[in-house]
Each structure stands twice: as C-alpha cells, then as structure tokens.
Amino acid sequence: MEIQRSSSTPNRLPMARPGTGTAGKTIQLLTNHFKVSINPRSITDAYFYQYNVCLAYEDGHPADAKDIGRKAMNKVHETYRTELAGMHFAYDGEKSLYTIGALPSKKLKFMVVLEDSSSNRSPVPLLVPLPLEPDINLVVALYRGSTSSNINSSDYESDRKRLRRPYRSKAFNVEISFAAKFPMNSILSPSHGRSSEQFQDAVRVLDIILREHAAKRGCLVVRQSFFDNNPRNFIPLGSGVLGCRGFNSSFRTTQGGLFLNMDVSNTLIIQPGPVLEFLLSNQNVRNIHGIDWNKARRMLKNLRIKTSHTNAEWKITGLSERPCGEQKFLMKQRNEGPDGGEDVQTIEVTVYDYFVQHRNIRLDHSANLPCINVGKSKRPVYIPLELCSLVSLQRYTKALSPQQRSSLVEKSRQKPQQRMESLQKAIISNKYDANPMFCSSGISISTQLTQVEGRVLPAPRLKSGNEQELYPQNGRWNFNNKKLAQPTTIGPWLVTRFSTDCDMRRLILDLIKCAKMKGISMENPTSIFTENPQYMRESAPIRVDKMLSMMRSQCRQPPKFILCVLPQRKNCDIYGPWKQRCLSDFGVPTQCISPSGKVNDQYLTNLLLKINAKLGGLNSLLNMGYCSSLGLVSSKPTLILGMDVSHGSPGQADMPSIAAVVSSRKWPSISNYRAAVRTQSPKLEMIDSLFQPQPNSEDTGIIRSALMDFYQTSGSRKPELIIIFRDGVGDSQFNQVLNIELEQIIQACKLRDEQWHPKFMVIVAQKNHHTRFFQNGSSSSLSNVPPGTIVDSRICHTRNNDFYLCAHAGIIGTSRPTHYHVLLDDVGFPPDDLQQLVHSLCYIYQRSTTAVSVVAPICYAHLAAAQVAQFIKFGDFSGSSSAHAAAAAAAPIPHLPSFHHNVADTMFFC
User: Fold this and answer.
1) What b/e string do you get for 565-585 counting C-beta neighbours within 10 Å, with b at 16 or more?
2) Cα gap 723→758, rounded to integer Å
3) Which secondary structure element, helix H or strand E, spans residue 662, and what is its range?
4) Long-range contacts of 873-879 (CB under 8 A, 24+ apart)
5) Which one of 37-46, 856-865, 876-885 scores highest in mean pLDDT?
6) 3-class DSSP state for residue 840?
7) Distance between CA 617 and CA 487 in Å, rounded?
8) Which of 449, 550, 432, 439 is closest to 498 using CA atoms?
9) For position 839, what pLDDT does the model report?
10) Which one, of 183, 18, 26, 14, lies nearest residue 791 by Cα?
11) N or C end of the chain: which has fewer CB within 10 A?
12) β-pair type (257-270, 241-254)
C-alpha cells in the first residue's frame, strides 16, 4: 500500500483567548507602547485612497532603481502642488501611494527631471569614451556645474559649451492611477477582536506614513526602523563597520486600543569618510601598500561617494584596471593658432596629470592607486581615490565576525532607565502630531509610556540529588554542598589538546575534585593527546583527522567521552569538523573548552553540568506537584516538542536552512530530550520533513523517530498529549504552523495507528519583537522586571490567546520578554495552569543554574541547529533535493551525515 500526504488542506485558525490569569503577585509596569487617540469626527466620512505609482524613463523603460522612487515623488510633490490640489501623500518607496481623500483625477501623469546631487554645484570630471579608434578605450574630460577656484575658467567654459544638456540629469514619467479606497473609521474597531481586511489596510497606511515622515527627515529607513545621521548614534565595530542606533516604530492594535510601539533598534552601516581610511580599516592593514584591490573592488561596488573638490555624489561601479598615474585618455585641447584662429589638438594624458596639471588639484597618494569608476564599463568616469569619501548611512549587509557581533551586543546595551529616557526623547523629537497626514486623520500620539498591570509568578520548586529541595531566588539557584539529581559516570575518557595555553594537569585535578563533590564518578583520563605542532598551519579538517588518527593508533579501548581543548573560544575552525567526526563517525560525546585566565569552581561546575547532561545524567528536576498542569503532564503520557529553523547568515543566500526538532523522552520526566536535525531549502521557514511517507508504507520523517523513541523509553506508552513549542515564526505564519506543520504531525501519528488520537497543544514563542517592560517607580525603574513577570492584558491581542513572559533575571541591558501565542489547546488548560506550565519549562535547562528566557525545548532546538550548522559550514556533503526544493527548482540540498547510534538519542547539543 502506498502512503501519500493528505491532499485536502485543513483550515485551522488560532484559538481565541479563554480568559486571563490571576496567579502571582500584582506589579505595576510601564511599557513602550504609546497610546494613539483618534478624533471620530475627523474620519467619519473620510477615506484612505490608494494609488498605483509607475515610474519610467523617457524611452518608456521602467525605472526600478531603489533610490529613484522617493526622489521622483518628492519632486512631483514639490513641482505639481497645484495639480495635486495641495494634498499630502505617503509613498511606500515602491509601487503604492496613499492619500486622505481623492486626488483631482483617477489618473495623473507628470514629468520630472532629476539631477544627481552634483547638479548646480562645483564641476566634476566625467571621463567618457570617444569613438576615435574602436580598439582603444579613449576618454575625454567633460565638466559641468559652476566654476571653482582650483579650475581654469576658460577650459571649464569651453568644456561646458560642448554639453547639450546636463550630463547626469534624467527625465522620468510618473503615472499615478487609482487602485482602491477604504474608510478611515475602520481604524477604530476591528470587528469582534478579529482584524478585518480594511482595518489591516488602514494600519498599514499609518505605518507607511511613519516611514514617509522619517524619510523626509533624512533618516535611513529599514522597514519600520529609522536611523538619524548623528555620529553620537554610531558604534565602532572594527573593519570599517559601524553599528547605528535608531528606533523601530509601528502601530499595533491591542485590547487597550491602538498603540504606537516604539523601541530602540540597531542596524549596520559602512564607516563614512575618506575611502582610503575605510579600506585600511576594512582590511585591517596599516598602509595603502597592503590593500588587496580585488577585495576592495568587491567591497566598494555600489557604495555612494562624495568628491571633496566638487561636493558631487556618485555611485561606485568599479575601479580602474591601471593606477591613476598610468590610466590614460585622449583630451581635446584648444590653443591659439599661428593665424590667430583656434587650433584644436588631441593629446594623451593620464588621469593623475589631468587633475594635477590641468585642474590644479593636489594629489598626494593617487599616482599608484586605482581610480574609482562611477560610470559604466564602456563609458567609464574616473575619479582619483583620495578625492572620494563614503557618504553616511549606507547599510552593511554582510555577516559580522564573532568579535564584531560581541562588540555590537556589548556596546548597544541600555539599562532600563536609559532605554526609557531615550524612547521618551525620541517620541517628542519626532513631532508626530505635526505630521500633516496624522493631523488630517485626527490622530494624536501620547508622549508617555503606557502603564499596564502585570503579575509575578512564583518560581517552581526543583530537586537536586538525594531529593534535596532547591529554592530558586531571583531566577537563580546553585549546587553549593549539593549533588546533582542524576549524576553519571565519566569514564573511560581522554583529553585532546589543540592548544597548550592552559595548565592541563591542574585543570584535570580540579575537575575531578569538583565532579566528586557533585556526585559524579570521574577517574583520571586514560590519555592526553597534544597536537603535533607541524600540523597547526593545516586546514581545520586535516588537523582533526590527524588528531583522531593519533587517538585510534594509541587507544586500547574507545573512550566514552572526550574533553577537547581548543585554541580560541569563539568561531574556532576546528569546532565544526571535530563535532561532526566525533558525533557522526565515532559516536563519542565531546565537550569543547578554551579556558582563559583562572579556572574557578563556577567554571568547573558549569562545565560538569554540560558533561553530565551529554552523558545521560540530569542536574536538577522539577517538583511535578508544583501546579496542576505539571500534575496532568506527569499523569498522562506527554510528549513535548521544541521546533526551530536556523537560516544562513546575511551574505549566505545559498546556505541550506537547518530544521531542528527536540523531543522529550523517558516519561514522566520532562527534562530528557533527543534531537533530530535535517537540512531544507534556504530561507524555508516551514519544516517540510516532519512527515515523509514512502512507497513501502514507511515514514522517514522526524516525528516518526520521536514517537518511536518515546514509546521505547516510556514503558511502551503512546503519548496522549503532544505539546509543540515552535520558535522563529511571525504572526502571518501562524496558519501555516497549524495547517502545514501540525498536519504533518497528525499524519505521522495516524500512520502509526489509525485509532490513536492524541490531544495537541501548539504554542509559538517569539523573541524578535519590540515590546519591553519597565518597573514603575523612581528607584525600581533602575532595575529590570523581576523573573516570572507576566502580562496577558491591555497590550495583548484583541482576540488571540497570547501573553508576555519574562522568566529570566535580566542582569545586563533591558530584559526582552518572550511573546507566547497559544494557537491550539485541545486540553483546555485554564490560563493560570498553562502559564505556569510554560514558566516551569524555563527552569529545566540543564546547562545552567538559572531560568532561561524561553522554554528549554526551544533552547535545545536552537543549540542542535547551531551545532549541526557547523557541519554544513565545514563539510562537503552531497545529496538530492528535498521535495520542496525540487518543486522550486532550487539547487540540491546537501543531506547531513547521520548521527552515530551511540549519541543519536543523547543530549549531545548541551
């Protein structure tokens, strides 16, 4: 019998809120949601009008350049105010324009002439090819603009007269045509808590007005984030990259009405200033002789520059092939003839000599450097590099190094009080109430943070070794004078050293001593292997192979555990191939360390927590009698899943996405997990490998292996309840989670047993949002909200079942709560029981002695995906495309090597 996926598509929708919780101690909070007031009389009979915008060049070809749209529409508004009846509009930067009320006609056509920022300024040389000889790329220098003190006036005037029109000005045809209209009063009330289509359209218009407002102030606009050109907001990250602090603003509809959610935001930009200084910084070299010009050419392409001698702005298209002192062109020169007439001669001159001798511009370094080309490949426009500076607020879109990421996080942190003050200053300085479209809409925005009521849930009780109780305080606990709940035996084990920087003998003695105090049986390592210095300059895979070859040849018996000492803490090239070989080929759990400085008891304890979990032990356990929901989970066989998809970094568009699913095992425990990891098409967010039926009635999907493992480790019991925690999806993807991913899980269960109908709960956890909470009070506002703080009213969704939970103790910066959305609950948990269950799952993370900010199953899925992503980074795995990838005609997706059976069901990711 051939098993196929169900052809019918279900139509599940997120569940409605059953009520709000009451458990916990009440706390008054402030949040970065600013109340929006709307005058109903201003919008009773008013409409938002949407118009399509079509931009084209004079010849009819569409103008698709990203930076053209706003310039053209600003010119239209400036030039044709009468034809537009003096109306203001909000332009989205692409194809749509919105007004309050109708324009004079349903279709309007305009013609505008745009000149680059060099127009009407000092002259700038344009080096363009002349058709003198077809086999030689000849160029002539032309000028436009006004004269300058360092340029010969007669030469300039003669050059200017040869131009038929300003060289870089372009005419555009702009067509504005009516598309739709919707009533403005749809802003006031989404129908019965469910956002109507008209309401969503109206809110989208308000967000576009925000973007237009920021663009007119000269901000860099990145979706709903806005960044001012203020050097005080720049954060140096090294290599010519800056972090830029700005603000994210968007309108949100909540139980309390319409709010403007504003928060601090960061983006990456190129370091503005002289191009030479940027290249030195970007390539980390001390002088211009060390610059790699091939890298420079790739780095500079499409960046915008401003020339110091003309103040003209250009876009870089490349670099000249020859240095400025050798790059020649033909120039026509007019001299007075012997008979008093004008004698025109064509002379050959280098770009360097042209600027120095003919334009009297001093050049100190350019003779031996390439020129910047701001023209086209067949019509180059060369400018000496030292005359060029990068303009500000140009986005940097490549991946950051680990050091840069760490620096950005560290330098962009703000304490709660600082964040509140910066938000209040921003909401005032933006002057939204002066925006003409907001005024026409009768919209006013409060400048005060909104007060909300929260609750602080009590921490769950934990158990350590010998059934001793652990009482977390402020989201933390410790194992001082306590043993681990389920300590394991470490042995036989060995040490591999890719670094000789630490005192290995002292580290081993202290580790064994600490292990004994925690109840772990740990003997001396059977061997210590140190890398042969002759291989230290080899590639990481070769270094790993040499180390493993040495181990195999000298070990009498295979180890049960390997402690690996790496030469650096983060982004070590050895980490990926080492993990892949140990987990896939040898089936040995391994812990990588790179101790720096003094190794204290806290470091050793944290190290042992990870090792104990990897080898099958548990460090602490939940007291399952803490709340009724935990009692239900422990009385009915319950499978808990954590699901996440990891995508490649910016600049890695072809990097396969990694789907990771962790599943609980050994019920009634909810602290033991295993992981299954698969590759899928790049940037594909929905997991497509949960259910994979085969022609032979088998299923090779992820869920099948999770169900089989649960059955085998839980007394041959099938789960009666399956709780799914999904991370990384946005609001618009909730229906896909319910109708694609959940449907796959249901089909996998049916294939196991048609008569088996478990109950499901689906919860999405979001960390990528902009809601923050602050304690209300002069003294308490200096610190973060206490761990266990929950908010499920006023700023939550009008209909859906969602809540914010800050389970962890924020020590540095401002705490970011996790936004949980309960999409499905077949059990019908009361709000308090459900919220306490989620809160409790933040306390079972085995790698630390603190509550984590999001439930542990999702943390584990993060870890598994991140660790296995290193296999892709350093491996060369081939395989066929998945069904989804084949349908999309994508490149083949490499399959991951399977995990060795010794580690496949362990918490290797800890």
Assistant:
1) bbeeeeebbbbbbbbbbbbbe
2) 10
3) strand 657-664
4) 873/576, 874/540, 874/541, 874/573, 874/576, 874/577, 874/580, 875/576, 875/577, 875/580, 879/679
5) 856-865
6) helix
7) 5
8) 550
9) 97
10) 26
11) N
12) antiparallel
Taking a C-beta distance cutoff of 8 angstroms, is the pair 326, 348 a contact? no
Are 343 and 337 within 8 A, CB to CB?
A: yes
Enter the tokens of residue 64: 């698709």
Read out DSSP for 514-547? HHHHTT-EE---S-EEE--GGGTTS-HHHHHHHH
Cβ proximity of 18 and 822 under 8 Å: no
The pTM of the whole model exceeds 0.85: yes
208, 98 Cβ separation under 8 angstroms: yes
User: What is the SS3 assignment for 551?
Assistant: helix
Residue 257 is given by DSSP the state E
pLDDT of residue 781: 60
Q: Tell me the C-alpha distance between 375 and 382, whole Å.
A: 7
CA distance linking residue 298 with residue 317, whole number of Å: 10
Query: pLDDT tens, 304-361?
Result: 999 988 888 899 999 999 999 998 888 877 776 666 666 777 888 899 988 998 888 8
Token pair for residue 340? Answer: 């008093």
On the CB side of 471, how many CA atoms lie within 13 Å of its CA?
0
Whether the Cβ atoms of residue 462 and residue 843 lie closer than 8 Å to each other: yes
Residues 6+ apart with CB under 8 A from 772: 31, 32, 263, 419, 814, 815, 816, 817
Q: What is the pLDDT of residue 345?
A: 78
Q: Are strands 773-775 and 759-766 parallel, antiparallel or unpaired?
A: unpaired
Confidence bin at 266 (pLDDT 50/70/90): very high
Residue the block writes with tokens 């709010």 = 259
- Which has the minimum average pLDDT: 388-402, 450-464, 585-599, 873-887? 873-887
d(CA 203, CA 870): 41
- CA max distance for the chain: 114
- More confident of the two residues 42 and 516: 516
